[in-house]
Each structure stands twice: as structure tokens, then as C-alpha cells.
Amino acid sequence: MEYSDLKDTDLAILENINNGYQFKPDGTVTNRFGRKVGSDRGDGRIKVNLYTSSRGKYATVYLYRFIAYHLWGDKLFEKGIVVRHLNDNCRDNSWKNLALGTQKDNFADAKRNGVKFGRSAKGWDWNAIYWSYITRGYSNTVRKFGIAQLPFKYIIDNHKPSFLQRLYLNSKRWTRNVE
Q1: Average pLDDT in the 79-85 region?
Q2: Least crowded by CB within 10 Å, which of 21, 44, 64, 166?
Q3: 65-69, 121-125, 136-140 — which is least confidently predicted?
Q4: Interior CA angle at 159 toward 156 and 160, to 5°?
Q5: 65 touches 93 (CB < 8 A)
């Protein structure tokens, strides 16, 4: 596999895998100074910034992909291969919870673990979430419903507001323009 064919994130993994990082079976990774790496930036998955010297920039990499390369090497970069969280908890990066497979395997895991797909995913009341977003804002809504950024963005982008919600939104726009 050519380096030029790799995405920035995959190249960052390759270049940094031997830079003194310590991988532990519980899913934590420490840098050469012994500090834990990775942070959650809103969507529930832990990410780490890695520098790619060949391209001269930082790439944000999901920690589970970094760990998967440590465990399985170049298999991670094969076409159609994804890293699966067997218990569907994307914050659990322990070695026993990670596996390589296809997207079909990943959906099978989700179904086995009771994750719902479609309009009533996780039993959320989309109308209530949307209304909360309009009246309370992003942070309070995410906190109240305990939802990750990606499904939340999907809900907001695809929800059709009711007549009363449209009326409320229009009144907000009108008052904002007047002030």
C-alpha cells in the first residue's frame, strides 16, 4: 500500500504507532510521558490529534482506530473493513470489545445489542428533542436527552417542524430582525 493512497488519519496512525505510545488492554493509551491521550469532543467517541510529518499537519483520529492498528496492523486499512465495538458502547475501547469486520457485521452487532434504527431510534420523541433544541439550545438539549452529536444533528436536519414550531421560529426570526 502506498502512503499517498492513505487518508490523513490513516497516515497519522502509521507514523505515530512507534512514537512511545503505550496501549493497555483496558483501552487506554498513554504517551511517552505517561499521560493518557484522547478526549471526547461531543459525539461520544474518543479522539486524539496525531501529527503527520510527511504532510506537515495534524489529523484527528478515533482512538479505537489507533488501538485497532496496534492490535491488527495493516488489516485495518483493507477495503470494506471497519472497527466494531461489540457491545455498541463507542467509549469502551477495551481490547475484548474491539473487532475487525464489515459494516454488515457491525449492523448485526447493533441489532443483537438491541439498538433500534429508523425514525424511532432508541425510543426518542423527535418532536420533543426538536422543541427542546429550539427553546433551550444545543447544550441543554444534549444534556437533557443524553444523545450524541451525530444522531442529534440528524434529528435537527431532518425533522419537519409542526405548525406551532414554525410559528415560534418565525416569531423569533421576526423579533431578531427588529432588534
Answers
A1: 92
A2: 166
A3: 121-125
A4: 135
A5: no
**Cα→Cα distances 4→10, 11, 25, 37, 85, Å:** 11, 9, 32, 27, 29
SS3 breakdown of the chain: % helix, strand, coil, rounded to 5?
A: 50, 15, 35
CA distance 130 to 127: 5
Tell me the C-alpha distance between 74 and 17, whole Å: 12
What pLDDT was estimated at residue 8? 86
Cα separation, 170 vs 36, in Å, equals 47
Domains of the chain are 3-112 (3.90.75.20), 121-178 (no CATH)
| Per-residue pLDDT at 153 exceeds 70 | no
Query: How do strand 82-85 and strand 57-62 relate by DSSP bridges?
Result: unpaired
Question: What pLDDT, in 10s, does the model give residues 156-171?
Answer: 666 666 665 665 666 5
C-alpha cell at 97: 470489545
The x, y and z cell numbers of residue 100, run together, are: 475487525
Question: Taking all residues of the chain, what is their mean pLDDT, rounded to a whole number?
Answer: 78
Amino acid occupying residue 67: I
